[in-house]
Amino acid sequence: MSSDPDSQDRSSATVAARLAEAIHDHRLIPGMKLNEDEVGVIYGVSRTVVRAALQELAHNHLVELRRNRGAFVAQPSVKEAREVFEARALLEPRTARSAAARTTEADIAALRAHIVAEHAALDAGATGRALQLSGQFHIEIARIADQLTIAEIVAQLVARSSLIIALYWQRRTALCESHAHDQLLRALAARDGALAEDLMKSHLLDILTSLDLRDQSSQPRSLEEALRP
Amino acid sequence: MSSDPDSQDRSSATVAARLAEAIHDHRLIPGMKLNEDEVGVIYGVSRTVVRAALQELAHNHLVELRRNRGAFVAQPSVKEAREVFEARALLEPRTARSAAARTTEADIAALRAHIVAEHAALDAGATGRALQLSGQFHIEIARIADQLTIAEIVAQLVARSSLIIALYWQRRTALCESHAHDQLLRALAARDGALAEDLMKSHLLDILTSLDLRDQSSQPRSLEEALRP
DNA sequence: TAATCCATCGGTGTATACAATCCTGCGTCC
DNA sequence: GGACGCAGGATTGTATACACCGATGGATTA
User: Domains in chain B, please, with CATH?
Assistant: First the structure.
């Protein structure tokens, strides 16, 4: 919680987590260069641990490593965006169904707290935090289903989705998806697995259709993005 | 192919690939310690790149990193084994269906060559190589479906499956699954997506049921567990 | 004037040195 | 004789030094 770089664990996992947080908050925007020395100075560690953190983030497709060029915040392509949501569509609905059969009262309370925090963040204008909480909700469902392996995969896909949303979000209405989470929670509380599965499926489809994924040559960001805005 | 450590690319990815190969071939068995210096000497690289390779393998759950203790070949638990195949059951059947609609003649030829190589490896008694080819077959299907993200996830799950099979294989009959791959190939060639989906589903179920996953850890994680009861 | 070449420099890739931690074996004490 | 404790060795964690690559900018030449 402290922002004092000297007072905390300086492991590579910590650095990776803080960088990921910054990416999710859009303080680091896609395409931005991550200089190893700078990051090291900021977090009070050497390049050795910075490199380990960057490698971990590269595994999760949050940064792209170009040999002899350095690390850059990832810029998922339109195709990649579709693929990520395709994978989520295969994993999450059935997992939500499984979760419904195993949801405990404690789980429901935790999810409800999650939604409350999400609303609060939205009201406070902290869209980055809201997005992160929204993603956590999905991961939590996989954990309730007691599928830790799937939860881990979903966690990675959710993280990538955050980047995708940062790049391709178009819907002017606020993140209304919180309503979908409310519905999901009710389905889980009612142990209605079929409903939970359907809700999750349409929820993911809803997010996907809220993106602007026209075939725009979103790849040549190297030059276009530099000159356009 | 060369085993001369000086004649080839000494990047961490290469070291990771060769270690993974050794794990799949069961030359490195679950639980084995991977000393950083030894690995470095063997491949002619410094500990820096060995550590990067080990971190990559840890990310794929092929090795387990214990802080201040070192790296060990992973020993997936029974629960983890079930979870891996649960994830595969969600991803692969539907992906096989998609692949059926996109399979080209070149794809069919490549898959057929794959199966031939698999049979040859089996006949030659190279079960490790056969297992690896068998896994590649599954990954190839995801690539035919043009789902690179799913292909990557499946690749990781397949790698873990190889470890799981090494630990929990019980069926005395030879790896008869090659027949399942034959059937799958025919379904793809016939562009029968529904059949491909069904075949993949039952194929995965068949592998899972061929494992000995009785609830108590048949492979004790520690000596204590082995000697206590 | 414009294009090409080369030198310099910032930054990454790798190796090595140092620090911290854990395991092991021996000695001592009860 | 056994158990506890301490010290030595070995191995991992981290920092730093050096090597190599690529980018940038100026100078030279057509």
Answer: 12-73 (1.10.10.10), 78-209 (1.20.120.530)
